[in-house]
Amino acid sequence: MSAATPSDIVQSPLPRLKITEVFLSLQGEADAAGWPTVFVRLTGCPLRCTYCDTEYAFHGGQWREIDALVAEVLGYGVRHVCVTGGEPLAQKRCLALLHALCDAGLEVSLETSGALDVGAVDPRVARVVDLKTPGSGEQARNRMENLALLNARDQLKFVLCDRHDYEWARALVAAQSLHERCMVLFSPCKDRLAARDLADWIVADRLPVRFQMQLHKLLWNDEPGR
Question: Which interval of the chain is the signal sequence (predicted)?
Fold first, then answer.
C-alpha cells in the first residue's frame, strides 16, 4: 500500500474562537464572588440590552486557537475561570472551549444571557444564566425552555432596573419555584435602581433569593480588563 501524499490529506483548521480579551481579576458576582478568576471574553452578542456595559465586545477581537487559550488560562495559576462575552454561546465552538477547560482541571463557569440553548454545555460547568427583564429591552429574547434545564450547580440572575422589573422577577420565581431548582440572584442595575431599595424589597417580601452587587463595579467601575 503506497503512502499518502500531501494532496491526499485534508488538513482541517485548528478550532478557533474570536476573543476580545483574557485577563485575571476577582469574580464580581454569583456564588464564586471574590475568588481570583481568569476571564475569557468572547466577541459578539445578538442582544442589545439597554444597560450593557461591554459594548466593546460586540465587534473586533482576535482569532485564538482553543488549545492556546487553555494554556494561557493555566498560566495564570488560579483555579477559577469564567467564560463570558458578549454572548459566548453565539460562537458554536464555545462548547469545545468549555469542555477543554474542564478537562484541564479548572473550575469553570459560563456567563450567558439565556437567549441561546444551554442544554449542550458540559455538565461540569456552572451556568450563570442572566434572564432578561422588561427593563433590559430584551425580554422577548429569553429562551424560557432553559429554565427547566437548570440544576443546583447553576445560578439564575436577574438584573433589575426598577420596581416593575422586581415584581416581574418575583412573580416568575414564585410561579416556577425557581429557587428550588437553583440559586436565584437579584442585582440592582447600576444608576437605575438603588441597591438599598432592592435590598429592602427582598427583606420585606422574604424572598428566597440572594441579593448581590457587582463587586468588580464597586472596585473598578466599568474599566475593561478588570
Answer: none
Q: Which residues contact 90 (CB under 8 A, 6 or more apart)?
A: 42, 44, 45, 46, 116
Give me the tens of pLDDT residue by residue for the chain, a chain 226 residues long.
333 333 333 344 679 999 999 999 999 888 889 999 999 999 999 999 999 989 999 999 999 999 999 999 999 999 999 999 999 999 999 999 999 999 999 999 999 998 999 999 999 999 999 999 999 999 999 999 999 999 999 999 999 999 999 999 999 999 999 999 999 999 999 889 999 999 999 999 999 999 998 776 676 676 676 6
Q: Where are the domains of the chain?
A: 15-220
Per-residue DSSP letter, 213: -
As annotated, the binding site for substrate includes 26-28, 41, 84
Residues forming the annotated binding site for S-adenosyl-L-methionine?
51-53, 86
Residue ranges of the annotated binding site for Mg(2+) are: 54
**Residues annotated in the binding site for [4Fe-4S] cluster, as ranges?**
45, 49, 52
- Would you tell me how many other CB atoms lie within 10 Å of the CB of residue 35? 13
